[in-house]
Design a protein that fits this description.
- The mean pLDDT is 92.
- The strands form 2 sheets. This protein has a 7-stranded mixed sheet with strand order 3-2-1-4-5-11-10, with helices on both faces. It has a 4-stranded antiparallel sheet with strand order 6-7-8-9, with no helix packed on it.
- The relative contact order is 0.16.
- The longest helix is centred in the first third of the chain and has 15 residues.
- α3 packs across α4.
- It has 8 helices and 11 strands.
- By secondary structure, the protein is α/β, with parallel strands linked by helices.
C-alpha cells in the first residue's frame, strides 16, 4: 500500500503525541545513558568542549552529558514543543544547556564554533530530495572547528531491509493504540502512523519517511561535504532488548573529521 508523504512532514510531527508514541526510545532514560556512554567512549570529549546536539529534540543526550559534568552544550531542533520541554527539564534539574529552535539546513549559527556535532536517533535522512540531506551535512561542516568531529547515529540499512515489516502495532498504555503501515522504495521507508484512543477515537493519522544509507553511500556524501577519516561502525547498539523499535532498533554509527 502506497501513500503520499508531504515534503515538510517533520515540521509538525514532533510534539507531545510523538513523545507518547515513541516513548520506548526517546523517553527511555536507560537507553539514553547507554547512548551517552557510547558517545563518551567514541569521541573522547573533554568536559569543556563545545558540543552541538543537532536535531536534538528535547535534548535528552545533552541533558545526560550535562549531568556528567559537560559544560558547553547546545541543542538545536525545529520543534518548538521539544525545545520548550528541554528548557523546562534543564531548569528543573539545574543543568546548563543552551536550546535553539531552527532549521538544520541553515542554522544561522557562527562558522567553526563547535568541536563536536552529534546527530542522534535517526534524525538524519528526512528528505526524499537528497540535496536537502546534503545541505545538512554541508552546514555541519561549516559549523565544526578545524579538526572537529561529527557523529551520525543512523538506521542500519541492511538490518532494516532484512527485518522489514509492512505493519506494526503496539499499545502505549490502556488507552492509546499505535498502528504503523510501511512500504519501502528506493531505500526510503514511507510510513503511515495511525494513533487511536479508546476514549477519544483517532488522535492522529500522519505520514512520514526516512532514507536508509549504506556505509558506502553515507561515506560518499560525507567526503563530498569535505569530511575525512570517515568510519562506519555497524550494530553499535542492538536495541532488541527494548522491543521492536522499527527503524530505531539496530544502529549504524558514522564518524567524520573536518580536515585541518
Amino acid at each position: 500500500m502506497k501513500f503520499h508523504v508531504n515534503d515538510n512532514w517533520w515540521q509538525d510531527i514532533f510534539d507531545e503525541i510523538y513523545l507518547l508514541t515513541d516513548s520506548r526510545s526517546v523517553c527511555n532514560d536507560e537507553l539514553t545513558r547507554q547512548e551517552v556512554d557510547f558517545i563518551e567512549q567514541t569521541l573522547k570529549v573533554k568536559k569543556n568542549s563545545p558540543i552541538l546536539d543537532l536535531c536534538g529534540g528535547q535534548g535528552r543526550h545533552s541533558l545526560e552529558l550535562a549531568r556528567r559534568g559537560y559544560k558547553n552544550l547546545t541543542v538545536f531542533d525545529y520543534s518548538t514543543c521539544l525545545i520548550e520541554l528541554g528548557k523546562k527539564q534543564a531548569g528543573n534539574d539545574k543543568l546548563k544547556v543552551n536550546f535553539i529552535q531552527g532549521d538544520a539546513r541553515k542554522t544561522g549559527l557562527p562558522d567553526e564554533q563547535y568541536e563536536f556535532v552529534l546527530v542522534m536517533a535517526s534524525s538524519f535522512g528526512y528528505f526524499i530530495d537528497e540535496n536537502e540531506n546534503k545541505a545538512i551535512l554541508n552546514e555541519i561542516y561549516r559549523l565544526l572547528k578545524l579538526g572537529g568531529h561529527l557523529l551520525l547515529d543512523l538506521t542500519d540499512r541492511d538490518f532494516c531491509i532484512q527485518n522489514f515489516k509492512p505493519e506494526s502495532i503496539h499499545n502505549v498504555d490502556e488507552d492509546i493504540h499505535v498502528k504503523r503501515e510501511r512500504f519501502l522504495e528506493n531505500d526510503v521507508i514511507y510510513s503511515r502512523e495511525i494513533i487511536q484512543s479508546r476514549k477519544k477515537g483517532t488522535i492522529r493519522d500522519s505520514t512520514y519517511c526516512i532514507r536508509l544509507y549504506s556505509p558506502d553511500l553515507i561515506t560518499d556524501l560525507l567526503l563530498a561535504s569535505g569530511f575525512t577519516w570517515i568510519d562506519c561502525q555497524r550494530d553499535f547498539m542492538n536495541r532488541k532488548s527494548f522491543g521492536d523499535l522499527g527503524c530505531m532498533t539496530n544502529r549504524m554509527v558514522v564518524t567524520g573529521c573536518k580536515r585541518c
